[in-house]
Amino acid sequence: MKFVYDKKIDNECHQRINARDDIFGEKIKKDIYPVSDEIVQQFSNKWTSEIEGSFEKGIFEIFNKHIPKDFICYIISSPYSMDIKEGIAISASSLGAMIRMICHEANHYMFRQSNYRDKYFPNMDIEDAKEIFTIVNNIYFKDIMETPDNGWKKFWSQRKGFLQKWQSNNLKQ
Q: What is the per-residue pLDDT across 152-172, written as a single tens digit (0 to 9) for each?
């Protein structure tokens, strides 16, 4: 995975956030976390080949599809990370839990390309469905994530219910 800063991507992410009144019922933070070459390098240094191997294996186990070889992680100054059409955009403030955040946003990116929304969440907004679905990261990335993926508070009960469904349908007993 390649880590980069791109001012255009950063600005687009800020515009997406500023266009909202809230995020899943929570007040939007407007903090800015400056991105320097040193910050980008710190992200790159933490993403070892061992972590990348476990990450790629987990993505394949979840989606039965490989993440693109040219996948890019954009480091942004927003307090919020997100999936974007070009890859994923990770907040510079996430350095302490960057692996969990990368797994979370990469899951969103791959979810958009999968049939899981139709299969598991046919009548739900895709943004909500993506947030519920990331609970599976706690199975497939538990050995590399710094902390569990708890997701947004709004979805906690739905995530637990979905995890049970996923485990019964997808994990070999």
A: 888 999 999 999 999 998 876
